[in-house]
Design brief:
mainly alpha, 4 helices
């Protein structure tokens, strides 16, 4: 897939940083999540609200350390 470089203001980057769910999450992933939410909200406003709520709950679980690492998930799934 082709990549590109874009210029953004420092405060825009800082806001994107706040939306990252984990340290190594790429800006591309963060932007894709934002686009998904916006498009969901446009199509079905009630679903968009549910999506935002679900993401916020997941982010709170991650902050509290309530998540599985990739290796833990693989172990549980027998992979």
């Amino acid at each position: 897939m082709e990549t590109t470089t874009i210029k953004i203001y420092g405060n825009t980057k800082a806001q994107l940083d706040l939306l990252r769910e984990y340290k190594n999450e790429s800006y591309d992933e963060v932007i894709k999540k934002i686009l998904y939410i916006v498009n969901s909200f446009r199509k079905k406003p009630e679903l968009g609200k549910e999506t935002i709520d679900a993401i916020e709950k997941a982010r709170n679980r991650i902050r509290r350390g309530q998540f599985l690492t990739e290796s833990e998930a693989k172990k549980r799934l027998g992979l």
